[in-house]
Amino acid sequence: MSLQINDSAPDFTAETSEGPINFYSWLNSQWAVLFSHPKDFTPVCTTELGYMAKIKPEFDKRGVKLMALSVDSVADHLRWIPDIGETQGVAVNYPIIGDHDYKVAQLYHMLPATVNGAANTRTPADNQTVRNVFVIGPDKRIKLILIYPMTTGRNFDEVLRVIDSLQLTAKHRVATPVNWQVGEPVIIAGSVADEEARRLYPQGWSAPKPYLRIIDQPS
After folding, report:
1. Which of 99, 124, 153 is the last residue of a domain?
2. What angle do CA 7, 146, 173 make, to 5 degrees?
3. Sites in the chain below the pLDDT cut of 70
């Protein structure tokens, strides 16, 4: 069975481009994004790792840590990282897991448990299901899962937008509407009855329908 939103994120210890890391210790009660790649030296992934390095300060501002994974060895990663810097104009500034034994990819149900053998004999197409993004909360539970096809680069600005929503809705009993951006109105959560909503939001709300109660974004 695949992992689902609100499942506990599996813990692991792995070799990375920044040395051995235990995931839970590294997480340290912070938010994190774990994003995976089917193979080193692939074109779409090269652009993705570079872009994540560019926007890492935005994740830092939100208290979100970044970790990548590719189904190759750390030695391969260390050869790939200069290519990313050369072509994308930015140095990789977060750890990349060396998952040549498929341990983490299998733990997160990106590859079947039956996969074995040498990673360097597998093609990107063999690993095409390893195109995932997991957002993990301070409670070590999965908050978001995205799975992309091989030929479509991921929208990491959207991941930032979702994190803004997740962090807001973790603090306040609200939901965010379609295409919401920080500073825009939000919706009182459906789990909040009107009586409780009056206590939580004494300023009141607008309601084009009784179930659609709109307020300014809480601070």
Report:
1. 153
2. 60
3. 1
Domain match, 78 and 49 both: yes
**Could you give the CA distance from residue 185 to residue 215 in angstroms, rounded to a whole number?**
6
Instruction: Count structural domains, the chain.
Output: 2
> Do 43 and 112 reside in the same domain of the chain?
yes
- Assess whether 97 and 184 both reside in one domain: no
Rounded-to-integer distance, Cα 218 and Cα 193, Å: 18
Residues serving a catalytic function are 45
Structure-block tokens of residue 32: 């994190």
Q: Does residue 208 sit in helix, strand or coil?
A: strand
Residue 76's contacts (CB-CB under 8 Å, 6 or more residues apart) are: 40, 41, 70, 98, 100, 120
**Contact, 48 vs 156, CB < 8 A?**
yes
By residue range, what is the domain housing residue 109? 13-153
User: CA 193, CA 196: separation in Å to the nearest integer?
Assistant: 5
CATH number at residue 127: 3.40.30.10
- Which of these three, 104, 120, 153, is where a domain ends? 153
CB 97 within 8 A of CB 75: no
pLDDT score for 161: 98
Among 172, 165, 193, CA closest to 213: 193
pLDDT at residue 124 in the model: 94
Residues 112 and 83 in one domain: yes
Q: How far apart are the first and last CA of the chain?
A: 39
